[in-house]
Design a protein that fits this description.
heterodimer, A: mainly alpha, ABC transporter involved in vitamin B12 uptake, BtuC, 0% strand, B: alpha/beta, Rossmann fold, six-stranded mixed sheet, 32% helix, ATP binding (chain B), membrane (chain B), ABC_transporter-like_ATP-bd (chain B)
Chain lengths: 329, 519
Amino acid sequence: MTWLQRNKIPAGTALVVLVAAYAFYFANPNIAVSMFSNAWFLAVPLVLGAMVGVIGERSGVVNIGIEGQMLVGAFAGFFAAAATQSVFIGVIAGALSGIAMGAFLAFTTVKGQLDQIIAGVVINIVATGITSFYYESGKTIPRGLPNFDVPLLSKIPLIGPVFFSDGPIALFALVIVIVLHFLLFKTRWGLRTRAVGEYPSAADTAGINVIALRLFNVTMAGTLAGIAGAYLSMEATSTFERGMSSGRGFLALAILIFGAWRPLRALAAALFFGFMSASASQLQASNVVNIPQQFINLLPYVLTLVVLAAAAGRVRAPGAVGQPFVKGD
Amino acid sequence: MTQTQSQAGETPGPRETLLEIEGLSKSFGTVHANQDVSLRVDRGEIVALLGENGAGKSTLVKQIFGLMTPDAGTITIKGDSSRIKDPKDAIRRGIGMVHQHFQLVPVMTVAENMMLGHETARGGLLDLDGARQMVRELSAKHNLSVDPDAEIEDLPVGTQQRVEILKALSRRVDLLILDEPTAVLTPQETDELLGVMKELAAGGTSIVFITHKLREVLAVADRCYVLRQGKVVGGVDDLSSTTTSDLASMMVGRDVVLRVDKAEATPGDTVLSIKGLQVKDDRGLPAVDGFDLDVRAGEIVGLAGVEGNGQRELVESIAGMRPSIGGSVRLGADDITKSNAHDTNNAGVGHIPEDREKHGIVGGWSIADNLVLNCYDEAPYAKGFVRDFGAVREHAVTLREEFDIRSPSVDVPAGSLSGGNKQKVVVAREMSARPRLLMAAQPTRGVDVGSIEFIHRRIVEARDAGAAVLLVSAELDEVLSLADRIAVIHGGKVVAEVAGKDADRTEIGRLMAGDTDSH
């Protein structure tokens, strides 16, 4: 079977959405670009968070600590940037703090066989505690990560201004989704990772080191959570606030499920959510309907719930998610 | 890879010694799983490892495959006695293993599973075409047909096993270990597998074959070792002069009655009456399709059939675990077609389920609690809504004695027992309720010879006490030796009924395969 035959429904959906988006664009280019840009702007941390989940769960480790990992990334990144007055160093610090948080989850759950949910909750609580305790007001960074135009690609109507005229982390998020999708389904690492997450004893008897692969994957996935945090404090804004991840890590998990544990579909799911949020703000701003603002703000979350409920039962989690691997069991 | 083949020439005898185990011991806590085990396998030989559940067969082969490390003793493969570090090391030294629980990733294709662990890549890309090609070549060479692009979870068990064997062969094995390969196979698939084993051995591959089915040992093995309580208690070098009962008594350490001694049945009134029953399977396709059968008090009706012809759905539907979409099930004068499992049980149906781990016991609960799962809410085990633990325990102690459940006490978790003893817990519970109808689905699957004998005797006793017994089994031998009347199921309906004493093995095998034309 060809790729298109196997992916008829997602490919068809993507085509319909693309046509609709361009119809909107040609009808009203300004509003379309602003709405889609806003959607992508909101989707970036969700995409990165969902990728953390994809890597972890595909390897068999649930990560509900994405929220906390992001928060620590935002914090470490911002204060490193403030101290050194270098946003570049800030992003590196965010990524490194993400690795540390990833390693914490990996070593407690994969090596120590601590319950994965408990480990995730610990990460979230510790992250809130640490970032609040060491928070200092009044610190500033030189300026946020600047937007730039990607040569040629930024000239494409609609897609150019939306995806290729943003900051470096937004572009990174787009690239990492495609790279990860390729790695997961086309390479040796991907085959082994999926095997380890689906049926680890089969991987073990095939001579794959299940523990080592899970440790590596969960640790490295933390990098992306750290970078998502850096996006929040240094690209989307230029400030750190207490609890600024504000549920995005959990939303990323919902997107992961809606995206059926596949990077490209998770990207689409994140964009859908971003677009719903952007539409809500647009509705609010244009004042076309007289609905209390709170209800409009609720819209993306309600829609996410509805979509998730519809997706439940249709998508299937990797077989060994949540189960520690014990050799020779 | 070190050059080890040269040493093999020093071994005396006409054949090259491929594997030699000396003084192997392995303990788990205070349990000696293997004690001073020594054995030898030559090139091109099929060696059977016989033993009851818990005799230490699986532990032994897991050590050969590097999944466990021995406490003492040596394993020498082609003259190399260095420690086998892990499965990868074992594979490198030419050992392949087909596990009892298949080691295949269910959501991946045959080709992906074949390449897992030793993938070839072209410029970073997985070489899936190469893997497909390899599957095709291997399956043509060994006459084991599989579709490289089929997903494992869509394949029948017999085909999955074929994939496992091909996977092992793709690693160029000298020694293939098969851990209870026929436990999940239909009679036809079993015969096919035995043929494949013979061909492989003829081609120079040695096979170590774990089983507790004596007929299979005599059919394919060149030699066999018998294990009991972790030790090798005997070996047979020439199987041609051995009978199944010789092997069976070696396994259990005493004489076993393989034939079931039973008196002529004296059937009474009809207890179970099934008319035109229709039930769907998990995928929503018709599995039981117009099924008619009567079972009378005091007789054992054996339902013979190739697995997957609606037996599971039929049993689950009678037991109230699966809704039917047409027809009726009556128990005496009561209509139990729409009854749930609890009501069906209270109406007098005892059910020994096919999957004891899933539907038979609650692994984490004590033996005592498991023994009252069907009556925990009734006197004397409950007074009003308060349980009476004294009565529960007393009941358990009596049944443990009566049904020979081997456990330290009745308070240990049922999940910690061996397969045979778990099954005895289920049998004890279902029979102690004195059901009008006893439904036994695969009652001796994965159970050792001693327990099989015991369970068979109990089923006959239940019949003699006046129960109607419906026996569903994929083991044709079991149906033939127990049933007073045999019904053959094919495609969800009864295609033939014969009296137990007139039954002919080949004739029933033919009917099971759906061949009714010449009738």
